[in-house]
Task: structure prediction
Amino acid sequence: MTAYIFSTGASGTHFLASIIDSYTDHEAFHEPRRFTLPLPTPTVVINGFLRELYPTLEGTHGVILRDPRQVMLSFFNRRKGKLDPGYPAHLQGVLTTVDQWVETGCHKIYFKEMVSERGRLMQWLYHLGVGITKPIPKEIMATKVNHNGRGYAASYEDLPEGLRADLELKCGWYIEKYFGD
Result:
């Protein structure tokens, strides 16, 4: 069986792929731009770029939910403090699609749970049909990796005010719905 996991980007997909490859009975395809169906099984495809294909992909579906404020902070740092002013509008479109996935029954996990709660991560993978073949060590969950660093903005509040205001205008509905603030 093939499982498909979608995300907004900057949401722990590299971490998840390494967990799947090391501790499950599935092989992870992390952010493939192209692939031929059917895939070898058992496989997990982890890719935010599949959002347009979601309804046509046969298998189980999961989505990683990350607070858009943290997604934007991560991309701001990844882009060395130069984020396109149109990024909030782009993210709004992505989040609208993510919301549609969740509304159609896509298995969801929150980024914070995925990277810190071993039991919750294992339960989510189980719902996707991904079998755990050996225990995920506690140390893996305790090691925090942020490939983007914090060199340009240490927190969301450090981002340019106009960028924050635009994100809150365009994505506030999603923040309220999934993160309660």
Observations:
- Residues 161-179 form the longest helix (19 residues).
- The first strand starts at residue 2 and ends at 6.
- The radius of gyration is 16 Å.
